[in-house]
Amino acid sequence: TDKSYFYTVSSTFEYLCLFHYFFSLSEAKEQVLANLANFAYDPKNMEYLRELQVPDLFLDMLTEENENFVEFGMGGLCNLSMDPGCRDIILENDGISLITNHLSNRREETVLSAVTTLMNLTTPATCSQITEPGIVQCMLRFSLAESPRLRNLASVFLQDCCSQEQVRQAELQMQGVQTAIGIPLPE
Amino acid sequence: MAVPVNNSSGCWKVPDVHKHHEQQKVCISRPKYREGRRAKAVKVYTINLESRFLMVLGVPAIGVMTELVQLCALYGVVEEYRPLDEYPAEEFTEVYLIKFQKLTSARAAKRNMDEKSFYGGVLHVCYVPEYETVEDTRLKLQDRRGYVMRAARSRAKAAHSEGSASSTTASDINVRHDQTSKKECAEDASNHSQHAEFPPLPLPPWEQHPFGHNSPHGISAQEDKMGTLHDAIINLKQPQVEKLSVNQASERDHDTEHRLTSDQASAFRFLPRSSHLEIRKRRMEEAPEQSASVSGGTETLIGPKLPEPPKLDMNDDSLNTTASLIRNTMKQVGSAPGFKAVEKKTKPRRRI
């Protein structure tokens, strides 16, 4: 009878609990983190992930040294932030500044996730913070980048999230002093 | 990354080989409990990685383009296709670019064609979002956002209608799971090894205390439509626990809360970590009181004994080791001094 007991508890949610639990113990953090981030892609898992405070966990990853943790955490945020509920949690936890810091990350995948996440976080209330001159300048630089993906994504950001006036202002400012947002430090 | 270049790259430029085209190494250190049907690499998919542009590598150079496109068309409308002669390919193979009309078609095609053999070669299929235009990227993001929004809205609607119908806030997935497992149980009651979409696994040993009122999120008790064994076990256990606690500590104030919530027949319920810690702390505070009230070593226990925790046999050595590891760790964590109960309001960040 013990066995059938186990077979009855195999719902997605309980497995997510299990993942979450193992995350705190095992060495396989990276794998589990990637798993959680991929779970975040499916909207039907959003509520569970929210309940398990996974948005917080992803935000924590952004302060890790391990580049994989950062990449997977940012990927998870990119997936989660499409959902309005998760978006609000990320905003409450001061996600914007944590994410902005990684616009200068050396890994393209991390930067792309960061830009998409910032776009997802844009609401009337947060618009002014996300389209501050430093970030707009950064996106202008990205829109000239060699990588077509980054170029495209930055262009979408400039066209959809910023006003023409803001872009013009940032272009003017770029003639003079520039901010350092989005410029990776030398190796 | 952000190096500005003068955009003079002509259309005759050799396409770049991007890192995300490479087939990553399959992860070999994955524990058994997370092994899927197919070997996979550790990778996070975001909407940025996906695209309705696919690149198919490893197509044998024997003039099978038509066949390839026909194969692709099984998964959706193909808008464009062309061989990427410039792309560095393995000897005697060709590389093709396929543009689907819809992202979902590309997704299905990638899932079904990748690593499949095709006229004697093994295909490698990957997304190539670098072929997108700005407009493609915008539409892709908009579609995705719209999809997630719709899902969120329908979830809210379902929760709302369900809440008014049965005054429980069971989430729709729970319900769906109930239905599917009900069906599966009927079809396949004897043969459990084929039962679940996941391999069978025990849950980590966590407390079954029904502190429902503490849970800030309100997954409340859900009525058991299946009469599962799982709930039967809980219901067997709980009266005994209640009796004991009533005998020993009827004056404690939260006892009434116990009874109230257990009366509502708790099904399996997830407790957030913060409430686990709280319960544990409360237990530790209560432990010395209890041992004092039992009056030394006479040990005249009244009432039935609590059942022994069941020994689990997972039919597999490594799984057994894992289970006992979890059990021991939980014990250690539970007995560690200096645990602080964390308030939900402060919302602690977990460090891992």
UniProtKB/TrEMBL annotation, chain A:
<dbReference type="InterPro" id="IPR016024">
    <property type="entry name" value="ARM-type_fold"/>
</dbReference>
<dbReference type="InterPro" id="IPR011989">
    <property type="entry name" value="ARM-like"/>
</dbReference>
<dbReference type="InterPro" id="IPR042462">
    <property type="entry name" value="ARMC7"/>
</dbReference>
<protein>
    <submittedName>
        <fullName>Armadillo repeat containing 7</fullName>
    </submittedName>
</protein>
Automatic annotation (TrEMBL), chain B:
<dbReference type="GO" id="GO:0005681">
    <property type="term" value="C:spliceosomal complex"/>
</dbReference>
<keyword id="KW-0507">mRNA processing</keyword>
<feature type="compositionally biased region" description="Basic and acidic residues">
    <location>
        <begin position="174"/>
        <end position="190"/>
    </location>
</feature>
<dbReference type="GO" id="GO:0003723">
    <property type="term" value="F:RNA binding"/>
</dbReference>
<comment type="function">
    <text>As a component of the minor spliceosome, involved in the splicing of U12-type introns in pre-mRNAs.</text>
</comment>
<keyword id="KW-0747">Spliceosome</keyword>
<protein>
    <recommendedName>
        <fullName>RNA-binding protein 48</fullName>
    </recommendedName>
</protein>
<dbReference type="GO" id="GO:0008380">
    <property type="term" value="P:RNA splicing"/>
</dbReference>
<feature type="compositionally biased region" description="Polar residues">
    <location>
        <begin position="317"/>
        <end position="332"/>
    </location>
</feature>
<keyword id="KW-0508">mRNA splicing</keyword>
<dbReference type="InterPro" id="IPR034264">
    <property type="entry name" value="RBM48_RRM"/>
</dbReference>
<keyword id="KW-0694">RNA-binding</keyword>
<dbReference type="GO" id="GO:0005654">
    <property type="term" value="C:nucleoplasm"/>
</dbReference>
<dbReference type="InterPro" id="IPR039599">
    <property type="entry name" value="RBM48"/>
</dbReference>
<feature type="compositionally biased region" description="Polar residues">
    <location>
        <begin position="163"/>
        <end position="172"/>
    </location>
</feature>
<dbReference type="InterPro" id="IPR035979">
    <property type="entry name" value="RBD_domain_sf"/>
</dbReference>
<comment type="similarity">
    <text>Belongs to the RBM48 family.</text>
</comment>
<dbReference type="GO" id="GO:0006397">
    <property type="term" value="P:mRNA processing"/>
</dbReference>
<feature type="region of interest" description="Disordered">
    <location>
        <begin position="284"/>
        <end position="352"/>
    </location>
</feature>
<feature type="region of interest" description="Disordered">
    <location>
        <begin position="152"/>
        <end position="222"/>
    </location>
</feature>
